[in-house]
Amino acid sequence: MGYFWNLYWLRLKAAFRSPARLACVAVFLILVVSFGCLLPQKGPSGLTVGIFPEEETGEAALTILEGNGDYQIAVYQDLETMEKDILTGKLHCGYRIGKAEEPQPVTVYNTEASYLRPLLDQLVLSAYFEAMTPHIAQDYLEQRNLKGDITALLEKQRQEAKPLEADIRSVQGFAVPPDTTSQSVQPLLYAVLASLFLAAAVLEALLPGEDCRQRLRLTAHPFANAVSPAMATATVHLMALLAAEGVLSVILPDPYYPLTARLTMLILLAFVSAVPAAVAGSLRGRTAIATLLPPWVLIGVFCSGALIDTAHLPAGIGLLRFLSPGWYVLGWMRFF
Question: Rounded to two decimals, what is the model's pTM?
Fold first, then answer.
């Protein structure tokens, strides 16, 4: 074991003195920071709900709904534009909040893809009822020429109120249901991180450098000669990944994935990356192979499922997901 750890520390020190490895790590970190800063930020749900308010009650309900940070609100001035945006998938669903005198003042417009509409119905109806309650109580007092505690009256109205129901109308057309990975830009960022990192690990191994394989073959420790360098490589990779995660945690204060998922993913990625790095190391100096890395990165990002659900890809192209590091990374983190 003494030989194993001595070799491990020697390879670890050599890694930190390697200009090629340090350059690749620096470029990787710069790219990760750039993507983290340039990608737009979205809320945790990524859903956009259209609201077409009418008169004062609709505006009051809209004000209440805008205080909910679980989804984004888009305000419309006409129904036709809102229906078009529902069909194109820009909106998850839409609501018209009409006059209080109507039998069903709240009308919902949806498609078959509006899978969260029942939950959103309750939120919109609750906001409408909250906006209407003061007016109901005021009318009650005026009709009976009463003066009293309006707070107690409001509470009584809430207890006696009948459940509201929305008028549900299906918009004719088709909208693709969003995949859960598209609810935030962070899955795309981690797909880019995994693809870029593996490409950088392979590129670093291909670049010319010190080759000690012949010297290692002369020793009588084949297990240590095979495993110890791979562990040293994985250690350096893990340090680079943890540095990238630390920077991203500053840029993205509201992480999409829990800490356990991110840390286990980084550890697995660091050790798995040692395998293609070792294979590429056996081809050291053949930099022409590096020309295959850019298309591999593009395939890794496009087929990861972060941009488009891989189930919607043609059969032949969909099989490319098995070559995508991002597809495995995102699949792993969905378990948490």
Answer: 0.57
Between these two residues, 139 and 111, which has the higher pLDDT value? 111
Number of domains within the chain? 2
For residue 267, the model assigns a pLDDT of 94
Closest alpha carbon to 82 in 72, 93, 71:
93
Lowest mean pLDDT among 17-21, 168-172, 293-297: 168-172
Domain that holds residue 123: 48-177
Same domain, 61 and 12: no
Same domain, 326 and 256: yes
pLDDT in tens, 161-180: 555 555 656 655 544 444 44
Given 177, 202, 237, the domain boundary residue is 177
